[in-house]
Design goal:
The chain is of the alpha/beta class. The protein contains nine helices and ten strands.
Length: 285
């Protein structure tokens, strides 16, 4: 807008005009209790033609961080997924920063098992509503969301039809020794894994230990020059699945950064994400 001397505002542009023409998916908050009584929440986004009397495929999009959270704000990727007729679930596992300090700190020295139980409890709570096709459930995420994706496909191998693991760390020793992260308070890695007898515990918190059991066809994506999550984890996922006869595709985007930073590669990442899931889930109910 421009404000004229007479105090009248005149519109110059309308950036969101195209969105006003679309049937966008609606979102709502879901809360549930994990098996240890911890309360978690997340966001459920329904396809524009959602019908509660039908069973719809479900796609998890797990946020990174882990000190971040999913909200009901607009997400182009979530809207693209919902437009295919899929319910999209964005769980806030322990470690997320939207439910207070105790919930965030609960991930310390429990990088995978506790957060994984939170996610699975959320999936079960959503499925109990009766409109989820539990034979067509996919899991996906970037960064720590990729970590959780890799953990879940190995830890719960029979639950997933497909997966997308983006910039996924799978070995906590790599995260400690090879990245710019190292250790952080209130994070999954709070101390060196190489002191005392900690190494075994850190390996048991790494998705790598369960990956040989994974059976979900998985798309792996990574940046070649990522210093936050080095590409070594993506190679490990690829070989763990390929060596066990699981369909897997590995796409490496050239350059630095933790995720594609330009619109061309962002579009390519999202296109591959959606098309991989469509290949294994199919469209609509």
């Amino acid at each position: 807008y421009v404000l004229a001397p007479n105090g009248v505002a005149r519109r110059l542009t309308n950036f969101n005009a195209r969105f006003a023409e679309l049937s966008l998916a609606r979102s709502e908050r879901l809360t549930w209790s994990s098996d240890d009584g911890r309360t978690s929440d997340g966001v459920v986004t329904y396809p524009p033609d959602f019908d509660a009397a039908r069973r719809h495929p479900l796609v998890l999009v797990i946020h990174g961080g882990p000190t971040a959270s999913s909200t009901e704000s607009f997400s182009s990727l979530v809207q693209l997924l919902a437009a295919r007729g899929w319910i999209v679930f964005q769980p806030n596992y322990r470690g997320s920063d939207n439910l207070g300090n105790a919930h965030q700190r609960a991930i310390a020295n429990d990088a995978a098992e506790g957060p994984g139980r939170d996610v699975m409890a959320g999936v079960d709570a959503l499925a109990a509503r009766g409109f989820v096709d539990t034979t067509r459930v996919a899991v996906s995420g970037w960064s720590y969301g990729g970590f959780m994706t890799a953990w879940l496909i190995g830890r719960y191998p029979t639950r997933w039809r497909a997966a997308v693991a983006g910039a996924a760390p799978v070995d906590i020793t790599d995260m400690y020794a090879l990245t710019d992260l190292n250790v952080m308070r209130r994070h999954a890695i709070t101390e060196s894994p190489f002191v005392g007898d900690r190494l075994r515990a850190y390996l048991e918190m790494s998705p790598l230990i369960h990956l040989p059991k994974a059976r979900a066809p998985t798309l792996v994506m990574s940046m070649t020059g990522d210093v936050r999550v080095v590409i070594t984890g993506s190679y490990k996922i690829y070989h763990a699945l390929k060596d066990n006869g699981v369909p897997v595709q590995f796409v490496a985007f050239p350059g630095g950064g933790h995720s594609p930073g330009d619109p061309v590669r962002q579009l390519e990442r999202d296109r591959r994400w959606v098309e991989w899931l469509a290949r294994w889930l199919g469209d609509r109910a």
